[in-house]
Every structure is written in C-alpha cells, then in structure tokens.
Write a structure and sequence with these properties.
Radius of gyration: 34 Å
Strand content: 15-25%
Number of strands: 19
Strand order of the largest sheet: 4-2-1-8-7-5
Distance between the termini: 70 Å
Helix content: 25-40%
Shape: rod-shaped
Largest sheet: 6 strands, antiparallel
Structural class: alpha+beta
C-alpha cells in the first residue's frame, strides 16, 4: 500500500513538470514512459494532454508499440513523417466520449539516460504545421532535463527518509512488544527467545537475500566457569563441523572473548581466520562479525555473536539496532521480579537454569529433526567436512545413587556443597569436550555432551572414585546412576526424521524417556 502511494505521489509531481514543459513547447500531448527491458514493455509513468478526453496506453509490449525502434535513443529527435505519426497515434492513444485523436504533425522524443542506458522516453506531440524552433526546443528540453533530475533526486531522498522513519517507528513497536511480554510475567526464556528472533530479523537484508540465508547469531553464557554457546539462529553449520554450534566453548583470543573482556562491542572483517569468532575449531568465515556482550549491572552475563557474509552489512543503523536491543534486554532482566540481575542464566551451583537449558535443548532437538540438505560446497564447506570419528551428541540424566542416606546423614549446608561438587564434576569442558550442564530437579542433572562420550564418562569416574571432601573435611563416597540417549543418529542425506514417528526427537518425549530410563537404572541397582 505504501509503495503504491509513493508511486502516485511521484507521478503527480512528474505530471506537473510534464505539463509545464508541454505548454512551453506548445504541444498538445506529453507522456513519460519507463523502459522495462526485463519484461520488454513501455510503462507509462505520467501524462499531460490539452484535451481531457485523451489518454495514453498505460502498458505496452515493445513489439506492439511504435516506440520500439527508439528504445536505444541517446539524443532528442523530432519526427514529422505522416506515416510514422499515424502509427504512433494508433499504438499510443485512446479517447473517451467520442473524441477523435488529434492529427499530430510533429513528435519530439527525448531520452532519459542512466549509466549509459536509455531508461525512459519522454514524448511531446504537436499539431501545428510550422517548424519547431530548434533553439527554443533545446532550451526547453534542457530545462526539463535539469528539473526532472532535481525532482528525481529529491523524490528518491524523500522516499528514503520516509522509509527510514517508518523503519524506526516499526522498531519502536517491536521493542514495545518485548516490553509488554516482559511485564506479562512470561518466562525469562520466552523473553530471550523472542529477543533472539528479533535480532535475527535485523540480519535479513532484502538487497542481499541469498547472502542473508548464511547469516547467523549465537548466544553464549558462562556456566561452571566456562563460556558456552547455548542458543543459535540461522546457518550455524558454517560455524562448526558439528551439526549445531550449541555446546561450543568460547576460547581465549576470539572475537566473543574480546567483547567479554572489554565489556563493549567488537567488530571484525574476516580477512583471515584469526581471530576466530568463538573457537579455533570453527570453519573460517567470510564477510564480517559483530560481538556484543550482555551486561547486567556491569556484570558480563552473556555474549551475542552476529555474522553476515556481506562485509558491508553492519551499517551504523544495523549496529545501533543490535546494540540497543541487547541493552533493552538487559533492562528487562534487571526489572523482572522473577530474575536475579547478577546471574539470570545459572543457578547457585553454576549450572544452567531450567528455563535456559529447556530452550537450548529445544533448539538442539529441532536441529536433529531438520532435513540434511546437499549444499554447494563453496556456500557450505561444512557439508564436506567429516565429523571427527567417534564424536556424537548425547543427552544424559544423572543422579547420586545414595540419596536416602545422604539426606539423613548430612546437614542442609553440606548437602548444598555436595550438589555443587557433583555439578562441577559433570562439566564437559573439564574433559575437553563441548556441551553444558543443567539442573532437572534438586538432585537430578541433565548434561549435553558433544564429542567422544567415553572420554567424558572415563573422566567422571576418575573424579568421583575417591568421593568428595566437604569443607569440614568430611568425605562423602559417591556413586552415580545415569541414563543417556544419542541425539545425532545418522540419517541418509535427503531424508527427514518423522515428526510424529518413533524416531522423532520431541522435547517432552525425550525428557520422559530419560526420566524413565534413569528410574529403571536406579531400581535395577537397588
């Protein structure tokens, strides 16, 4: 609707310029035609006639219009051949109310040229027999040229300003929607998820539609002293050999860590692999990346990394939108009654909050259910890079075996310390693997492990075999029950896991299976 209004306003202004020029030339009719080479058509932009009952053909194909032989015209011409004029009349005009089409005696054709290509033709039809004054015509057409160029430039600038104004009005409405969501007692994960959707929408560029398909963002938080990617959006397969970027640890000397250390946004054009965005294991990027930390009361609680294959994409306006939205998110978390500003994404033990690991797991399962597409190796080099032998994605439910005796023997403070020690021992990062740890219930932990699973289990056994020493020098022997399922079962290229079938990975179904499996393990060993 807005586009049609802009076209109408432009046509009205152009019509006034045409009328002024037509009167100056003493012509009875004037028309402005755009040359649409893609559709091979002449498209009427505006017209001006002495007679109100005269109209021009709005759209005509090249082959059906007299002007077809002039579509490459590069300088003004005056035509007076009666046969040419008769053909022009029959292909260009129609009348209403029984009015006859005037017998024009002369026709002035004036080309509009852009980048050495004729993009439009302006026509002035004259009925008088006396020759047109060349000097007078030249002066009028030069004036028309200058006036049209000024109007065209002014109109374009005005339309761009209007579009920018509407863009920022829309942005204000989007932030308002997030504010209303945060005050409606929705969960923190819902606010975070909607914010990520909004941030990702800013990476979509209509001028680079194909390139925007490869744009991505990741969000990382600190858990158990390790900065780990927990959420993603876009084509994150370009970030890593794995099927998902979730679980990747942020290494030192990367763009994300640089933003966390400085507490401010960091920008990078990818001229070479160093510094990496997140990890040295990621695939070398093209384009540019922007890393922005999420600060709450001065504390670094998260970091976003945005990547776009167009290195000029991160304009001042886009960068401002991304920074401002993230700052708005921090204000939402600080104001929310159900969040602790100093640590909104982890609990007392340093593991992910239930809200966050549920959201992360939803994305992991959605990724596992997606169709594996065969992509152009140039556009998606990750498709041709093999996943390391033995690497896998596992979801683990785990709990201490001796819960009844623990609860009766130790004080609450000692039990909390015990829980913290168990949580720390589960961190995949301590085994050199990717992943995260969350809390399912008071003593049941959920662990996402990316890598060679036996490495994680072997290290875990070595850590717990001698038990834990509490602050009072009390030793607690520990045995763990766990049940795991593999999330990355290989599927043939081009097939899809059925969403409702037995192999689909649904969040609630997966958690029920894990819970049931863990219960079975516990009952078997008791």
């Amino acid at each position: 609707m807005q586009t049609q209004q802009l076209k109408k306003e432009f046509a009205n202004g152009l019509g006034r310029i045409l009328t002024l020029t037509r009167v100056s030339l003493g012509a009875e009719s004037a028309a402005f035609y755009w040359i649409n080479r893609e559709k091979e058509q002449f498209v009427l932009a505006s017209e001006s006639h002495l007679s109100s009952g005269l109209s021009c053909v709005v759209r005509s194909s090249f082959k059906d219009h007299y002007l077809q032989e002039f579509k490459e015209l590069d300088q003004p011409v005056i035509l007076s051949d009666p046969q040419d004029l008769a053909t022009f009349r029959s292909t260009s005009y129609f009348s209403s109310g029984g009015l006859s089409i005037p017998q024009f005696k002369q026709l002035i054709l004036f080309p509009i040229i852009r980048k050495r290509e004729t993009v439009a033709l302006v026509l002035f039809a004259i009925q008088r027999l006396d020759p047109v004054s060349t000097e007078h015509t030249t002066l009028v057409l030069e004036a028309f040229q200058e006036l049209f160029e000024f109007y065209f430039s002014l109109s374009g600038s005005f339309n761009r300003l209007r579009a920018q104004q509407e863009e920022w009005l829309e942005y204000d409405q989007q932030l308002q929607a997030l504010a209303e969501l945060s005050t409606s007692k929705k969960s923190a994960s819902r606010v975070l998820s909607d914010t990520i959707d909004l941030l990702y929408s800013f990476l979509q560029d209509d001028n680079f539609e194909i390139l925007s398909d490869a744009a991505s963002l990741v969000f990382a938080v600190q858990s158990l002293s390790v900065w780990t990617v927990v959420l993603e959006k876009g084509n994150t397969s370009l970030l890593t050999d794995q099927k998902t970027a979730i679980g990747m640890r942020i290494e030192k000397h990367t763009l994300a860590m640089k933003a966390l250390e400085s507490g401010s946004a960091e920008f990078l054009v990818h001229a070479n692999p160093s510094p990496y965005r997140i990890s040295s294991f990621e695939i070398p990027a093209i384009g540019a990346s922007l890393s922005i930390p999420l600060l709450l009361d001065g504390h670094r609680v998260g970091v976003f990394v945005f990547t776009h294959p167009n290195p000029r994409f991160f304009s001042e306006a886009i960068t401002h939108k991304l920074k401002n939205t993230i700052q708005f998110l921090s204000l939402v978390f600080q104001k929310s009654a159900h969040e602790k500003a100093e640590a909104p994404f982890q609990d007392r033990s340093g593991v992910l909050t239930s809200d966050l690991w549920h959201l992360s797991l939803q994305q992991i399962l959605a990724q596992a259910n997606q169709v594996k597409r065969v992509l152009d190796p140039v556009k998606n080099p990750a498709q041709n890079r093999p996943i390391p032998s033995g690497s896998e994605q596992r979801l683990v439910f785990l709990t201490p075996a001796q819960l009844p005796s623990l609860r009766t023997r130790y004080r609450l403070e000692e039990l909390k310390q015990f829980q913290d020690m168990v949580a720390k021992s589960l961190a995949p990062g301590q085994s050199g693997l990717d992943g995260w740890v969350g809390r399912y219930s008071e003593y049941v932990f959920v662990v996402f492990v990316v890598g060679k699973f036996p490495i994680w289990t072997d290290r875990l056994l070595s850590v717990i075999q001698n038990g834990f020493i509490l602050s009072g020098n009390q030793s607690i022997p520990i045995h763990l029950h766990y049940h795991s399922i593999r999330l990355d079962k290989e599927q043939p290229v081009g097939t899809q896991l059925p969403m409702d079938g037995p192999n689909s990975l649904d969040l609630h179904k997966t958690l029920r299976e894990l819970n049931s499996g863990l219960t079975h393990v516990i009952s078997t060993h008791e």
